[in-house]
Specification:
With about 375 residues, the protein is α/β, with parallel strands linked by helices. The radius of gyration is 21 Å and the shape is globular. It is built from ten helices and 13 strands. It has a seven-stranded mixed β-sheet with strand order 4-3-6-7-1-2-5, with no helix packed on it. Strands 10-9-8-11-12-13 form a six-stranded parallel β-sheet, sandwiched between helices. InterPro entries: APP1_cat, Mg2+_PAP. GO terms for molecular function: phosphatidate phosphatase activity. This is Phosphatidate phosphatase APP1 catalytic domain-containing protein.
């Protein structure tokens, strides 16, 4: 769609469609509650992050559809049904959620899609005895009959101890092959697979664990994952990281669907840049290694982040998955170099690990572990 047509649609079509969608969603939820289709509700917290005096956490209030975890032997049909439930969500708008953390409390109201945002700041430093801290989240409104207490614990990562650097990584075609540039391949992979059957690129888990340990051997360097995947598959991606031994960390995803401002989803690059820079703003004491791929716009996004936050990026690794983009990526690399940051276009994980070792960011012993992991995973 041309920019002119897109502008026309947003100006004249969207104001008509959005109220219809909003009315339908409201009627659907009301009917679901009255008929008993919606029997239980849940708070789904997304892992957050913070510093010594601030925490940032997102979450969503939804109908509890009991999706649960996956198993290796799950059929494609079972995987499809679970993914269908994730996307056919029943969001709960305009309800109050209370967050409690180390004597601080904050009440927020969910938006039209059931999302809420917690941003707490303290005048005094928090008591940090471990990196992962718990935030208590409580639903204050009664939604369904016999609801009982709806309470959950959210997790926020607050870097502590000897942190050498942070890592911000893309997911699709950076950690796991998805064919993000090929729509049908991406849809098939997403809807018919599960956390066990989807496999990361060879050696990625070992490389990321090596960076998590850094040079002191302590798993204290934080990881953040920024992706244009929808929040609907948050639990799927969290389980994927856990199943394959990839360091856990906050996932910054995006909302999709019709809203006041958009038809399907917001700009891929605008979303990712916003999330990367949000991490920079909160984790202001850290420098970062950025990891992405050449298939979409990661090089352009990271270049802009470097311009906006000088001195915060140590290195950029870009997995070479789109040969047709090689020249444009190299041009971006030249511009990054003038800003004091090296972009390395790598063909595989081993090349990235060797460069990280050369820079003194990981241990020599871990390179052997990465090589072994790559051989065991296969050459893909």
């Amino acid at each position: 769609m041309s920019s002119g047509k897109n502008s026309f649609s947003k100006k004249y079509v969207l104001p008509i469609l959005y109220p219809i969608k909003k009315t339908f969603s409201k009627a659907k939820l009301w009917t679901g509650i009255k008929t008993g289709l919606v029997k239980t509700v849940m708070i789904q917290p997304y892992k957050g992050f913070g510093n010594s005096q601030e925490i940032y956490l997102l979450g969503r209030v939804l109908r509890d559809r009991g999706i649960g975890i996956s198993n290796l032997e799950d059929s494609r049909w079972r995987n499809f049904k679970k993914m269908y439930k994730r996307f056919m969500s029943w969001e709960i708008p305009n309800v109050k959620v209370k967050a409690s953390f180390q004597g601080l409390e904050q009440e927020v109201i969910t938006d039209e899609e059931g999302y809420f945002e917690i941003n707490m700041k303290s005048n005094t430093p928090f008591e940090i005895n471990q990196p992962w801290q718990e935030v208590e989240l409580t639903l204050l409104d009664r939604i369904v009959k016999n609801q009982g207490e709806v309470k959950v614990v959210g997790k926020v990562f607050i870097p502590s101890g000897n942190v050498e650097y942070g890592v911000i990584s893309d997911i699709d075609d950076t950690i796991v092959p998805t064919g993000a540039t090929r729509l049908w391949e991406m849809l098939k992979t997403t809807f018919l697979g599960n956390a066990h059957t989807r496999l990361p690129f060879a050696g990625v888990a070992e490389f990321y664990k090596a960076m998590e340990k850094g040079t002191d051997g302590i798993e204290s360097n934080p990881f953040f994952y920024v992706s244009s995947s929808p929040w609907n598959i948050y639990d799927f991606l969290t389980e994927f990281l856990e199943v394959h031994g990839i360091p856990k960390g906050p996932l910054m995803l995006r909302d999709i669907g019709l809203s006041r401002e958009q038809f399907i989803a917001g700009s891929h690059s605008a979303h990712k840049l916003l999330q990367v820079e949000k991490i920079f703003e909160v984790e202001k004491q850290l420098q970062f290694i950025l990891v992405g791929d050449s298939g979409q716009e990661d090089p352009e996004i990271y270049l802009q982040a470097i311009k906006d936050f000088p001195g915060r990026v140590k290195k950029v690794f870009i997995r070479h998955v789109a040969p047709e983009r090689e020249k444009s990526v190299q041009k971006i690399a030249e511009e990054m170099e003038t800003l004091g940051v090296e972009l390395l276009l790598v063909k595989d994980t081993i090349e990235a690990a060797e460069k990280a070792l050369e820079k003194g960011w990981i241990l020599q012993a871990d390179v052997g572990v990465i090589l072994k992991g790559k051989e065991e995973d296969g050459n893909y």
